[in-house]
Specification:
Layout lengths: L4 H4 L3 E4 L20 H17 L14 H4 L1 H11 L14 H8 L6 H7 L6 E3 L21
Parallel strand pairs: 1-2
Helix pairs in contact: 2-4
């Protein structure tokens, strides 16, 4: 029997070892790929590739999380739901926090609000290097983001 999206919403699977997929690999996605959401996701993929090309941080940084790699599914669901029409928005900066976007792939989105209020679904993988005090539990995370 197939699991529904709601049943797998909080699922955390094995570590992700490569960046989020590129557009050619997502041909069977929704029609949104041609619309605003699809264009936005493509820009994010391009920016994420540039970010991945940067040299790694040195000491004292021991762990770096890339939620657009391991939490791509809920991130795409969020963008496709809420980025359908042009908006007058200016993001000056983002603080994803260990219990927000680092868990859900949704900017400033702690798991409860993302899951229950925004109704975002999708599987979240484990990052390749996870800090023992900041495990990625995906949409099942019970901690609240305070930032």
């Amino acid at each position: 029997m197939e699991e529904s999206a709601a049943e797998t919403a909080g699922t955390v699977t094995e570590p992700v070892t490569e960046p989020a997929p590129v557009a050619e690999e997502e041909e069977d996605d929704d029609d949104d790929d041609d619309g605003l959401a699809g264009r936005f996701l493509q820009l994010e993929r391009e920016q994420n590739a540039l970010l991945q090309a940067l040299p790694p941080f040195g000491e004292p940084v021991s762990h770096v999380y890339h939620p657009l790699d391991y939490a791509w599914e809920p991130h795409c669901d969020f963008v496709r739901r809420y980025c359908r029409t042009p908006k007058r928005v200016l993001f000056l900066g983002m603080n994803p926090g260990p219990f927000g976007m680092a868990q859900t792939g949704v900017p400033f989105g702690e798991a409860w609000h993302v899951r229950e209020w925004l109704r975002v679904v999708g599987g979240v993988k484990k990052p390749p290097s996870e800090h023992p005090k900041r495990p990625v539990l995906g949409l099942a995370c019970r901690r609240a983001e305070v930032s």
